[in-house]
Amino acid sequence: xxxxxxxxxxxxxxxxxxxxxxxxxxxxxxxxxxxxxxxxxxxxxxxxxxxxxxxxxxxxxxxxxxxxxxxxxxxxxxxxxxxxxxxxxxxxxxxxxxxxxxxxxxxxxxxxxxxxxxxxxxxxxxxxxxxxxxxxxxxxxxxxxxxxxxxxxxxxxxxxxxxxxxxxxxxxxxxxxxxxxxxxxxxxxxxxxxxxxxxxxxxxxxxxxxxxxxxxxxxxxxxxxxxxxxxxxxxxxxxxxxxxxxxxxxxxxxxxxxxxxxxxxxxxxxxxxxxxxxxxxxxxxxxxxxxxxxxxxxxxxxxxxxxxxxxxxxxxxxxxxxxxxxxxxxxxxxxxxxxxxxxxxxxx
Length: 348
Known about the structure:
Blueprint: H1 9-20, E1 38-42, E2 50-56, E3 61-71, H2 90-102, H3 104-108, E4 117-122, H4 132-148, H5 150-154, E5 160-169, H6 176-189, E6 191-192, E7 195-197, E8 204-205, E9 213-214, E10 229-236, E11 239-242, H7 246-250, E12 254-263, E13 278-287, H8 290-294, H9 318-329, H10 334-345
Parallel strand pairs: 4-5
Antiparallel strand pairs: 1-2, 2-3, 3-5, 6-9, 7-8, 10-11, 10-12, 12-13
């Protein structure tokens, strides 16, 4: 549940009216699709495979660390590699390994398992891991990472990779988009030990970190797939706003979490590579606005006799959901801007 605000009923009424105007007036003078300034850094946790830290201007921050370990895939064995040996010579082994490296991505399609990705969240002020807020955030993040499909397939090496993602954040802002954007940067910064051999009984890896392979190589084309991310979008009247502040969430008529990923256009043979990534919708969830949880709702959005705004009952209109998705997925839209901006932090 998004945090509550200390604004008075009259202040809430004034804010709701300002956001309902055409054009709308946001408290910080941003346009409806403009995000708040943020600061980000990567590779700050030395004992992880990848890490990132992202801070908003209001002081809220998230730190994400990615830890990867090798474990055997259930039901898999050497037979799954389909490698035929005639003599066992070194030249044959070298040729087979090169062939496996070239076709690794094609072989990995659809072989990833949801259980290889695990999300763990630790938020100050929440002492129990089974707290409703913790469980909801972890489920939302894992839902997007699993729905993407590309991430779990990238973990396939013939045996299963198991990921444990640790997320730490201060709870003074609604943390879902903050955690998601930070996770996106951490996955871009993630590197895995370079394989020496994938056809042995147990895979062998190079212990030299300087030759480790990035999970999402920066050498790939700009249209290649990138980690998914989740955006928080609200509607007030007929207007749609991205990256809402705590005050804007307090008067939102509807709140929606939209998770998007990329389509690997470079994976289609014979097709021209596109300069920018094509986005696709992975998941969409509506979230109860905090106003509905804090006060009894009226049947209309009208103000009462004292000028105090009260939230209306009802869900999000289908047309509003369609507009949100269109603004995110269209060429040159919000999703593309976010993807480009996050890539700039890590040279992507």
